[in-house]
Amino acid sequence: MSELVSVLHLPRVRGAENRRRTLVACVVSAMLLIVLTVAGLVAHDAAMATDFTRSNLAPCLSHPFGTDWMGRDMLLRTLAGLSTSILIGLAAAGVSAVIALVLGTAAALGGRKVDAAISWLIDLMMGIPHIILLILISYALGKGFIGVTVGVALTHWPSLARVIRAEVLQLKDSTFVAAARRLGASNVHIALRHMLPYVLPQFVVGLILLFPHAILHEAAVTFLGFGLSPEQPAIGIILSEAMSYLSAGMWWLAVFPG
Amino acid sequence: MLEVKDLAFAYPGASRLLYCDFSFCVEAGERVELRAPSGFGKTTLCRILAGYEKPLAGEVLVDGAPLPKRGASPVQLILQHPELAVDPRMRMADTLAEGMAGSRERSLAGARSQLLSDGEVCRVVEGLGIREQWLSRFPHELSGGELQRFCVARALLAKPKYLIADEISTMLDAVTQAQIWGFILEELARENCGLVFVSHSSALSARIATRTVNLSD
Amino acid sequence: MDSREHERFHAEGIPHDHDHGDGAREHASSRHADAQHHHGHDHACVSRHPHGHHLLQVENLCVSFSMYDPDEPFFRARKRDVKVIDNLGISVHEGEIVAVVGASGSGKTLLADAVMGLFEPNATVTGTVWFDGVQQDALGLSELRGRGLSLVPQSVAHLDPLMKVGAQVEGLPRGGETRQARRRRREELFSRYGLASEVAEMYPHELSGGMARRVLLCCALMDSPRVIVADEPTPGLDLELAVRAMEDFRAFADAGNGVLLITHDIELALRVADRVAVFKDGTVVEETAVANFASPDTLRHPFSRALWHALPEHGFEVVGENEVAGAEGSCGEGLLVGDALEGIAGADTPCGEGAGFTC
């Protein structure tokens, strides 16, 4: 049959294997993080080593990022600083996300009064500027690694808690949860089988979004001098120290860690 | 006997009572059609009967006892939209297993493989024309008709004394409708189970109902 | 008409004229007797061909999506094309309502989208569409949207909730039109469908169900279309109300236009339509006059006959399972349970065809 069939529409992108690319991207970024952290931990001591004969070198082959005024290699310092920051970020984001999960779920399932209290707390936390609270907590806990981690963890949970509360509330009223309940499913079963699979992606995304946020705030607090102690290599410290040398033309101190 | 006594109901925030001092009852083995104009609240009544909504006043009794707070309810509801009644992130075998009494204590991974070794499940699955490979699918991979078979199977496996069917075949083609209803009627007769249903199709109601309750009177 | 169906018609010895050479499908006569069978479909008494061609004709329409294989492990799953609409053909004549009947979720809405020139980004759509005797490409279809072909959606949810109804119906002037002309046209339509002039100042949530339906119809009629595609226009209405809601479509069709009514409700289709297209597994298996639904003997396709038998007012039974056993078919009865289940798994179509989207 001689039939002219016209193609009305074709997909624009053909055959992109999205799932596989996502998997590869995830593995590569996880590897990068792990390698950075491990390298930084290994380089930690080397990064503290001073060598006044080689101070204030501009970037060259043996010191790709240059050296600072105490002759410390900036590449090693940056690596060590990054690993400290990643560890703080991971710990703070993790704790923060768990607080969010617990409070968000409690607000959604705990009845009207609990919900009102937690919602009020969320609004309160969101109303206060992060950095002020962060400085206060960090200072009260005696600065250092613990102070910064707790400070960041305690200030970053509200937005994620709100998201989780909304998600759980929506699930609680969904028809399939009502149906499961009428079929005799226990609360544990409903929480594990019907709620966890929905909250988990929100939780993971929230955690990942918190992570850079936590690092940034850690660096900010340290920069302001309320965070880590100055001998520790951390991005905030390095930048803070670099500030005073910038006017002397030692740009490499700030550019590479930044 | 499924009894509704002096029921009053209004949605939160609504000024008008949807039901006020409403009573009716269904005997075991009876098939009752609920008839009322659009927007009267047939679906709401179905939800109240199955315990999905709490009435403001009055009670729903099965053989003299109120609906249990825990455990499988003796009144099971099948909805018009099966897509809403199944968890979109659960495979169909797990959804089906929810209907089986006692399966919740078992690990659900185990339940999936044991599902078809249960004679009861097999009979229902086969009678409703559910295919074995659908069991490992997610809801979005099945059509409305296929999902509704699962919802019916799940409700029947919970061994209800009364089944509530709210426009369950409205979205289905006539062949699927006939097949699903054929099996439901068979099961109702076998278990001496009562039925309350809503349908906008008068021909279908005439086929199924043993009694019609006109809510607007 | 695709070759498979073609062979079937020959095999059944049904006379079938060939006039496939030209694109516009000229007809020898402009009228057909009621229930006369003629290239692939039966006609109703109101069906007319005044210019020797169909008002809207779709042939060999295929819509496929590229998706992951559900039967493979998550990360190893390959994408493959799943055909949702397969070699579909349908025609709308002047003066008639054609109902496309099939279960919801079986892909009928995709047919409407394809005819309206709306395509999902990951869809592959092929086929031939003639509008009023002229073959259309994708650009032509999108230009016809609103002017020759209009869509009446399901509910007011398709209106912008923050815009007054009148302004939405008027829309923006196109070509050389003035805003005043569009306003006059809108007022004329509103008065024809019994909508008070205050309605134009209302927001969509203030409309009652019946008013909303008429507003949607006015939207569709604004640019004087010839064909209206109505996608499930009567959800949640009982039959009497639905039939009343369809009166406006009847009037539109009687004025020499065509309506393509997409619905899952076969009772409604038989009450208001002139012809019924039975939709199954992504294609139209039979296009026939409503009159032919009076008895199973006048229906050609086994699935249409199965539908007839399954209707509550007839047998309300599932007959000819072997004939209709597609993706929705039931399993064989009378076998031992274990055997039956194995039998199903074995006899099943390879998952290339039916998986996921069939109904």
List keywords for this structure.
heterotrimer, A: 258 residues, mainly alpha, MetI-like fold, globular, B: 217 residues, alpha/beta, Rossmann fold, five-stranded parallel beta sheet, 9 strands
Kindly describe this structure.
The complex is a heterotrimer of chains A (258), B (217) and C (359). Chain A is mainly α and 258 residues long. Chain A has helices at 18-48, 74-109, 112-127, 130-140, 144-155, 158-172, 175-182, 187-224, 235-246, 252-255, and one strand at 6-9. The radius of gyration of chain A is 25 Å and the shape is globular. Chain A starts with 5 loop residues before the first strand and ends with a helix. Chain B has eight helices and nine strands. Chain B has helices spanning 42-49, 82-85, 92-97, 108-114, 119-127, 144-157, 174-191, 202-208, and strands at 2-9, 19-26, 31-35, 57-62, 65-66, 75-78, 162-166, 194-198, 211-214. In chain B, the strands form two sheets. In chain B, strands 6-7-8-3-9 form a five-stranded parallel beta sheet, with helices on both faces. Chain B has a four-stranded antiparallel beta sheet with strand order 2-1-4-5, with no helix packed on it. In chain B, a hairpin with a 2-residue loop joins strand 4 and strand 5. The mean pLDDT of chain B is 85. Chain C has 359 residues and is α/β, with parallel strands linked by helices. Chain C has twelve helices and twelve strands. In chain C, the strands form three sheets. A six-stranded mixed beta sheet of chain C has the order 8-9-10-5-11-12, with helices on both faces. A four-stranded antiparallel beta sheet of chain C has the order 4-3-6-7. In chain C, strand 11 and strand 12 form a beta hairpin. The model of chain C is unreliable at 1-30 and 322-359 (pLDDT under 50). Chains B and C meet through helix 5, helix 6, helix 7 and helix 8 of B and helix 10 and helix 12 of C.
Task: Describe the secondary structure blueprint for this structure.
The complex is a heterotrimer of chains A (about 260), B (about 220) and C (about 350).
Chain A: E1 6-9, H1 18-48, H2 74-109, H3 112-127, H4 130-140, H5 144-155, H6 158-172, H7 175-182, H8 187-224, H9 235-246, H10 252-255
Helix pairs in contact in A: 1-2, 2-3, 2-5, 2-6, 2-8, 2-9, 3-6, 4-5, 5-8, 6-8, 8-9
Chain B: E1 2-9, E2 19-26, E3 31-35, H1 42-49, E4 57-62, E5 65-66, E6 75-78, H2 82-85, H3 92-97, H4 108-114, H5 119-127, H6 144-157, E7 162-166, H7 174-191, E8 194-198, H8 202-208, E9 211-214
Chain C: H1 3-11, E1 37-38, E2 41-42, E3 56-68, E4 79-92, E5 96-101, H2 108-115, E6 123-131, E7 134-136, H3 138-144, E8 149-152, H4 165-170, H5 179-192, H6 209-221, E9 227-231, H7 239-245, H8 247-254, E10 258-263, H9 266-272, E11 275-280, E12 283-289, H10 302-310, H11 321-324, H12 337-347
Parallel strand pairs in C: 5-10, 5-11, 8-9, 9-10
Antiparallel strand pairs in C: 1-2, 3-4, 3-6, 6-7, 11-12
